[in-house]
């Protein structure tokens, strides 16, 4: 399977800013699903079913990562005003919260990257954003209890989305 046809999962966030680390934490969990798969690849029986990366959310890096991909799933902390740990699935990208300081702690983040990708004609054919409502995005590692509980559900949702079998 070529890189263009293999799904890409991007965990966005900063591990040292509380719940903003949910994207990389989910990416780590997906990468552990298949110990026999190569670095960055995860999959049921066959390594290379999906590529997994963790990025800081800088819009140009996100666009560069998904450029040429047909199916991308992005996981990030998203502030939408719901209770902490609420999982949001956005595949109608116009509904993604606007890039505000409250919605992202990493320079415009996913919404800005989608706008940039749209302007440059560099959006994937299918782009799904899975967001988790944070309780806190302060300094220090570790997720809040509500977001930590959501991680397993997010891993399952993303695995189903990209065709990875969960044990």
Task: Describe the protein's architecture and organization.
The chain is of the alpha/beta class. It has a single domain (8-162), classed as Rossmann fold, CATH 3.40.50. Helix content is 29%, strand content 19%. It has four helices and six strands; from the N terminus they run βαββαββαβα. It has helices spanning 22-31, 59-66, 109-120, 145-162; strands at residues 8-12, 41-42, 50-55, 71-77, 87-90, 126-132. A six-stranded mixed sheet has the order 2-3-1-4-6-5, with helices on both faces. Strand 2 and strand 3 form a beta hairpin. Helix 1 (22-31) packs across helix 4 (145-162) and helix 2 packs across helix 3 (109-120). The longest helix has 18 residues, at 145-162. The chain is globular, with a radius of gyration of 15 Å. It starts with 7 loop residues before the first strand and ends in a 5-residue tail after the last helix. Residues 34-46 and 100-106 have low confidence and may be disordered.
Short description:
The chain has 167 residues and is an alpha/beta fold. It contains four helices and six strands. A hairpin with a 7-residue loop joins strand 2 and strand 3.
